[in-house]
Amino acid sequence: MSGAVAADSFDRVCAARPGAYRVIQWGGATVWKVGPRVFAIGAALREGGWGVSVKVSPIAFEALRNAAGYRPAPYLASRGLTWLQVSCDSVDWEETASLIDMSYRLVTAALPARTRLELGL
Predict the structure, then answer these.
(1) What SS3 state is found at 27?
(2) Fewer CB near the last or first residue (10 Å), C or N of the chain?
(3) Is the pLDDT of residue 2 over 70?
(4) Domains of the chain (ranges plus CATH)?
């Protein structure tokens, strides 16, 4: 999937999540948040192509961290967080979209009850 197509697909999948909003930060990365928390990051990869970083369960992190097209997300995983970076050139888009959904669910579940209520979640 080309970088432009991946970026458009990424934005479309993230925007469909209730309470989600987009900001550009960290040197031009497209960051999607729900409330104050990040659930997905999209950016051009150093080696070319487009990558998406998402929060995953500890089991998914261990299962995928060394699989083709996946790696521990720079900065986040090095701090002990279970975040993976997915290369959109190497991984099926449906799988990437499923991981974005997992990330959103994990992040919203960790929001305080008051915040979830304010966001209508």
Answers:
(1) coil
(2) C
(3) no
(4) 3-111 (3.90.1150.30)
